[in-house]
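Work Package 4 report. The design task specified in the project plan requires that, given a folded chain encoded as structure tokens, an amino acid be chosen for each position. We show below one input record used in the internal validation round.
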């Protein structure tokens, strides 16, 4: 399957097999994020990799997403919004890196789900994230225990305007 076919076939996974992601696979997924572009190459981002079951349970309390406990790994993406010159782009930079990880994961058959609804202060307290950092999102990772059906997407014409809106 080509990379484009992988991207087009990816779906959000909220049910995972009880199977660990091998360290070499996880490292390659994380490396895909590390290699992502950032404004002026400032790299104002950091990721907390959560594997501990107790910490995952506490993330559930801070995010209202019970399927976190099934995930092999949870990646918490953080942006240094106080970064000199490029702080206003830090959230975008972090998001690009996280999307790289999502795509890389899928190439290894590892499913993922973005989580954007959470209590940021609870997450920062739990993971000891400094005040100047913004929690952008979580990504759960694991081997899929489900095959979600395709979602309806807007038509091509609704999404793209050439040379004008």
């Amino acid at each position: 399957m080509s990379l484009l076919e992988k991207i087009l076939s990816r779906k959000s996974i909220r049910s995972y097999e009880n199977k660990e992601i091998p360290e070499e696979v996880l490292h390659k997924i994380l490396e895909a994020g590390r290699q992502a572009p950032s404004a002026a190459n400032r790299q104002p981002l950091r990721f907390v990799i959560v594997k501990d079951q107790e910490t995952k349970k506490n993330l559930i309390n801070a995010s209202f997403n019970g399927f976190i406990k099934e995930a092999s790994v949870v990646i918490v993406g953080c942006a240094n919004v106080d970064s000199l010159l490029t702080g206003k782009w830090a959230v975008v930079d972090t998001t690009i890196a996280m999307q790289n990880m999502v795509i890389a994961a899928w190439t290894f058959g590892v499913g993922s789900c973005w989580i954007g609804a959470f209590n940021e202060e609870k997450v920062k307290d739990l993971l000891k994230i400094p005040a100047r950092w913004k929690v952008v999102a979580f990504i759960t990772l694991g081997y899929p225990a489900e095959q979600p059906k395709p979602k309806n997407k807007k038509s091509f014409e609704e999404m793209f305007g050439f040379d004008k809106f």
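The chain has a mean pLDDT of 96. Validation will be extended to a larger panel in the next phase.
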